[in-house]
Amino acid sequence: MSDKQVVIYSTPTCHFCQQAKEFFKENNVEYTEHDVAGDQEKAQEMVTRSGQMGVPVIFIGDDMVIGFDEGRIRSLLRI
Protein backbone atom coordinates (compact mmCIF):
# COMPACT_ATOMS: atom_id res chain seq x y z
CA MET A 1 0.00 0.00 0.00
CA SER A 2 1.18 3.49 -0.77
CA ASP A 3 2.41 5.79 1.97
CA LYS A 4 1.67 8.84 -0.16
CA GLN A 5 -0.76 11.40 1.23
CA VAL A 6 -4.06 11.45 -0.68
CA VAL A 7 -6.10 14.67 -0.84
CA ILE A 8 -9.37 15.08 -2.74
CA TYR A 9 -11.04 18.38 -3.48
CA SER A 10 -14.73 17.65 -4.03
CA THR A 11 -18.32 18.83 -3.77
CA PRO A 12 -21.27 16.97 -2.25
CA THR A 13 -23.14 16.77 -5.58
CA CYS A 14 -20.22 15.57 -7.74
CA HIS A 15 -20.80 12.05 -9.09
CA PHE A 16 -17.13 11.43 -9.92
CA CYS A 17 -16.11 12.66 -6.46
CA GLN A 18 -18.42 10.06 -4.92
CA GLN A 19 -16.91 7.36 -7.16
CA ALA A 20 -13.39 8.34 -6.13
CA LYS A 21 -14.25 8.29 -2.41
CA GLU A 22 -15.97 4.90 -2.76
CA PHE A 23 -12.88 3.59 -4.56
CA PHE A 24 -10.64 4.83 -1.73
CA LYS A 25 -12.89 3.23 0.90
CA GLU A 26 -13.05 -0.10 -0.96
CA ASN A 27 -9.25 -0.14 -1.21
CA ASN A 28 -8.60 1.05 2.36
CA VAL A 29 -6.92 4.23 1.17
CA GLU A 30 -6.88 6.97 3.78
CA TYR A 31 -7.60 10.39 2.34
CA THR A 32 -8.25 13.97 3.32
CA GLU A 33 -11.34 15.54 1.76
CA HIS A 34 -11.89 19.24 1.17
CA ASP A 35 -15.45 20.30 0.30
CA VAL A 36 -14.83 23.22 -2.04
CA ALA A 37 -18.56 23.99 -2.26
CA GLY A 38 -18.60 25.08 1.37
CA ASP A 39 -15.02 26.24 1.88
CA GLN A 40 -13.92 29.18 -0.29
CA GLU A 41 -10.38 29.04 1.09
CA LYS A 42 -9.97 25.41 0.02
CA ALA A 43 -11.64 26.18 -3.33
CA GLN A 44 -9.04 28.88 -3.96
CA GLU A 45 -6.27 26.52 -2.81
CA MET A 46 -7.50 23.92 -5.33
CA VAL A 47 -7.50 26.43 -8.19
CA THR A 48 -4.06 27.72 -7.21
CA ARG A 49 -2.57 24.22 -6.96
CA SER A 50 -4.23 22.72 -10.01
CA GLY A 51 -5.41 25.49 -12.32
CA GLN A 52 -8.75 23.64 -12.36
CA MET A 53 -12.24 24.85 -11.51
CA GLY A 54 -13.89 21.41 -11.79
CA VAL A 55 -13.84 18.58 -9.30
CA PRO A 56 -12.61 16.15 -8.30
CA VAL A 57 -9.01 17.21 -8.13
CA ILE A 58 -6.99 14.51 -6.41
CA PHE A 59 -3.42 14.79 -5.20
CA ILE A 60 -1.49 11.61 -4.48
CA GLY A 61 1.75 12.82 -3.01
CA ASP A 62 2.89 15.47 -5.50
CA ASP A 63 1.01 13.89 -8.42
CA MET A 64 -2.26 15.46 -9.55
CA VAL A 65 -5.21 13.55 -11.01
CA ILE A 66 -8.06 15.48 -12.59
CA GLY A 67 -11.37 13.63 -12.42
CA PHE A 68 -11.77 10.02 -11.38
CA ASP A 69 -9.10 8.29 -13.46
CA GLU A 70 -9.10 4.87 -11.77
CA GLY A 71 -6.19 3.51 -13.80
CA ARG A 72 -3.93 6.44 -12.97
CA ILE A 73 -4.98 6.39 -9.31
CA ARG A 74 -4.23 2.65 -9.07
CA SER A 75 -0.86 3.22 -10.71
CA LEU A 76 0.09 6.07 -8.38
CA LEU A 77 -1.03 4.13 -5.30
CA ARG A 78 0.38 0.84 -6.63
CA ILE A 79 -2.87 -1.06 -6.00
Account of the 3D structure:
- With about 80 residues, the chain is of the alpha+beta class.
- It has a single domain (about 5-75), classed as Glutaredoxin.
- Helix content is about 40%, strand content about 20%.
- It is built from three helices and four strands, in the order E-H-E-H-E-E-H.
- The chain has helices at about 15-25, 40-50, 70-75, and strands spanning about 5-10, 30-35, 55-60, 65.
- A four-stranded mixed β-sheet has the order 2-1-3-4, sandwiched between helices.
- It is globular and about 30 Å long.
- It starts with 5 loop residues before the first strand and ends with a helix.
- The model has no long low-confidence stretch (mean pLDDT about 95).
Q: Give the overall pLDDT as a whole number.
A: 96
CATH C-level class is Alpha Beta
Radius of gyration: 12 Å
Following the backbone from N to C, one meets helices and strands in this order, namely: EHEHEEH
CATH topology, anyone?
A: Glutaredoxin
Shape: globular
Low-confidence parts: none
For this structure, the quaternary state is single chain
**Structural class by secondary-structure content:** alpha+beta
Strand order of the largest sheet: 2-1-3-4
Biggest β-sheet strands, sense, barrel: 4 strands, mixed
Distance between the termini: 7 Å
Estimated helix fraction: 25-40%
Total domain count? 1
